[in-house]
Specification:
Number of domains: 1
Number of strands: 7
Bound molecules: zinc ion
Radius of gyration: 17 Å
CATH class: Alpha Beta
Helix content: 25-40%
Number of helices: 8
CATH superfamily: Metal-dependent hydrolases
Largest sheet: 7 strands, parallel
Order of helices and strands: EHEHEHEHEHEHEHH
Distance between the termini: 28 Å
CATH topology: TIM Barrel
Structural class: alpha/beta
């Protein structure tokens, strides 16, 4: 693969993953991955029955643990960059997200279940709120859409969606756990991603170590839809990102 190996969507045992952060990092080093992000679930909605990052104590423990591995990787010259992420369920209440997500603590925020224009408006609102709270735009974490399902938008006005992604610099994730989302019946959607130069990334939604490295298939899809330049945009952002 001519590109760095990235998996920006991994769950640990802080939510519904089976693996500890320690084990994820160890395995990622063995697999020669270049960028990984731990992105545990954050919700006060339907997923509340699984353990999630839903209180200050757990969140700060989680962040501190990832930070310690970030320091370890830097101090030991490992060729692996670890990002501090979180996966926000957009069915959570607005107040819950505003209260608990301290933006400056994260390198990456993924959003799951963007499935309607109402939710686009909801998300805009949240990001605008965050933007007001930071001093400079570069303090914003990288933002991405987790396992976005094109079927909800492909028959509507795609330009509205693309303009939103462009304006807020939100990337689209190719997720190895959801191959049906990359079906040729959504070609018009992927053409729009190319046209609007929307960044794309790879995430495996890894809940166990065995699929930490399932990046080949998403990468093939990126090539199939001529989106290598879009991946480069994301990689550039990753390289320039000062980890928080
Ligand atoms: Zn996930």
């Amino acid at each position: 693969m001519p590109f760095p190996k990235i998996n920006l969507h991994i769950h640990s045992n802080y939510s519904d993953g089976k693996q500890s952060i320690n084990h994820i990092v160890e395995k990622a080093i063995k697999l020669d991955l270049n960028y990984i992000a731990i992105t545990d679930h954050f919700t006060n909605s339907w997923k509340a029955w699984v353990s999630t990052l839903n209180n200050y104590e757990t969140i700060s423990k989680y962040l501190e643990e990832i930070s310690s591995y970030q320091r370890y990787l830097i101090n030991n010259d490992k060729h692996l960059t670890l990002l501090k992420g979180i996966e926000v369920d957009l069915a959570s209440s607005e107040q819950f997200i505003k209260d608990f997500i301290q933006l400056d603590k994260y390198d990456l925020v993924l959003f799951e279940y963007l499935q309607s224009y109402d939710t686009v408006a909801f998300l805009k609102n949240i990001i605008n709120y965050w933007k007001k709270k930071i001093t400079k735009l570069s303090d914003l974490p990288i933002l991405g859409l987790a396992h976005f399902d094109p079927s909800y938008f492909v028959h509507g006005n795609l330009d509205t969606l693309m303009n939103f992604l462009k304006e807020y610099n939100i990337y689209f994730e190719f997720n190895s756990s959801y191959p049906s989302y990359y079906s040729p019946r959504y070609t018009s959607f992927f053409e729009k991603l190319e046209e609007y130069k929307i960044p794309v990334a790879i995430g495996c939604d890894s809940h166990r170590r065995s699929n930490l490295n399932d990046i080949e298939e998403p990468f093939e899809m990126i090539k199939y839809y001529n989106l290598e330049k879009n991946l480069e945009i994301l990689l550039k952002t990753l390289k320039s990102k000062k980890l928080s």
